Amino acid sequence: MTKKAVLLLSGGLDSATVFAIAKAHGYEIYALSFRYGQRHAIELEAASHVAKALGAKEHKIAEIDLRLFGGSALTANIDVPKHNAVSEIGEGIPVTYVPARNTIFLSFALAWAEVLGAFDIFIGVNALDYSGYPDCRPEFIEAFEVMANKATAYAIDAKQRISIHTPLINMSKAQIIRKGLELGVDYDLTISCYDPTSDGKPCGKCDSCLLRAMGFHENKIIDVAN
Amino acid sequence: MTKKAVLLLSGGLDSATVFAIAKAHGYEIYALSFRYGQRHAIELEAASHVAKALGAKEHKIAEIDLRLFGGSALTANIDVPKHNAVSEIGEGIPVTYVPARNTIFLSFALAWAEVLGAFDIFIGVNALDYSGYPDCRPEFIEAFEVMANKATAYAIDAKQRISIHTPLINMSKAQIIRKGLELGVDYDLTISCYDPTSDGKPCGKCDSCLLRAMGFHENKIIDVAN
């Protein structure tokens, strides 16, 4: 029997790679994206293309407007920081951090997983070449997994453990790209930029664009999409 | 300095009582309600009345349509069970359970708490006279609290612990009502029914109506609202 998995799909390169990895492990993928008031909502088009290209069983987009709370450069009127190189990316937690975003995303994934009877949830968090977000760290994921197993009726009834899978957590951006290319991911479908232009072109200078560029550069590959 | 707290406010009697308790402890209340596709959306009007009557500093209603996933009598086309007495309420987890609902609600509360810099979150869960929901149990709340402290930048930066307060967790429905009356809660503003009529009247036979009736009866008080 094919195992069902819920996968958080952003339209960026990390979650596309996780998709390919989960698929290679034989999971049937239920992809979940969010329109959360992000300034880079164009990533949702990319998510749809990735879901289609990689063969999602279903792709849902949840509407949750986090502009209700603000508090981030991605959901409020705060400028996204721009740099010329990865080495210029500041220390500490950047203003692109969205309060409790991964907690909210994983909670929705958990709700869908329970309705589907799926015990596996995949998320593309990464604790190496990342932006310093607290909710990308392994200790957060572990604590969420413990909580998820106490939160839901199906985990208690089935006596089966819910797992939050983070296959990228210890990979560099270059390793992630290499892995995805091996598995046939078409990165041209993805977009990583936090602050794209009005016609959907990446800015090339936000943290996310710079980390992506570094990953492609280290693999000596030209990034057509970004 | 007044301490800020985020409070999950449903429009029912439990969360109104929690509001009064938190206020009595000196907290400034930021009340959060959800339009989640529930069939009893009339509870949001009740929530607004309670927020006003008890003096919320702010009241936000988040729009998160959980009909996207379904899987519950409250968000899908499944009948709400009706009974004639509390003793008839079935064993096990009822179909009114909404998968991961409190996880999602608390995640949103956490997001707002982080933006506000509030370290206290109040929720009216109750493990005695309740409907058997897994996400109303103390072990779930404790696991959520642990997770919340690993999920957010402000808890890490401030080295201050986020607390999830559940003042009703070990109280019977009758005790909750007695406490609320002592603190001046006007229960006529609240509605507890899972399946109200089209003109907003409680059905009187769902688990929530029956538990409420029992609580008023044990206090020898007439419930005008339900």
Main attributes?
homodimer; 226 residues; alpha/beta; Rossmann fold; five-stranded parallel β-sheet; 7 helices; 5 strands; 36% helix; globular
Plain-language structure description:
The structure is a homodimer of 226-residue chains. Chain A is of the alpha/beta class and 226 residues long. Chain A has a single domain (3-218), classed as Rossmann fold, CATH 3.40.50. In chain A, 36% of the residues lie in helices and 12% in strands. In chain A, strands 3-2-1-4-5 form a 5-stranded parallel sheet, with helices on both faces. The longest helix of chain A has 16 residues, at 101-116. The A-B interface holds A 60, 62-66, 68-71, 93, 97-104, 107-108, 110-112, 114-115, 133-135, 137, 139-140, 143-144, 146-148, 150-154, 156-157 and B 60, 62-66, 68-71, 93, 97-104, 107-108, 110-112, 114-115, 133-135, 137, 139-140, 143-144, 146-148, 150-154, 156-157.
Through-space gap between termini of chain A: 39 Å
CATH superfamily label of chain A: HUPs
**How many separate structural domains of chain A?**
1
* Oligomer description: homodimer
CATH class of chain A: Alpha Beta
Query: Rg of chain A from C-alpha positions?
Result: 17 Å
Average predicted confidence as pLDDT of chain A: 93
The secondary-structure element order of chain A is: EHEHEHEHHEHH
Structural class of chain A: alpha/beta
- For the largest interface in this structure, which chains are involved and how many residues does each contribute? A-B, 44 and 44 residues
Low-confidence sequence ranges of chain A:
none
CATH architecture of chain A: 3-Layer(aba) Sandwich
The CATH topology of chain A corresponds to Rossmann fold
Instruction: Enumerate the strands of the largest sheet of chain A in spatial order, edge to edge or round the barrel.
Output: 3-2-1-4-5
β-strand percent of chain A reads: 5-15%
Query: Number of helix segments of chain A?
Result: 7
State the helicity of chain A in percent bands.
25-40%
Number-wise, the strands of chain A total: 5
Shape of chain A: globular
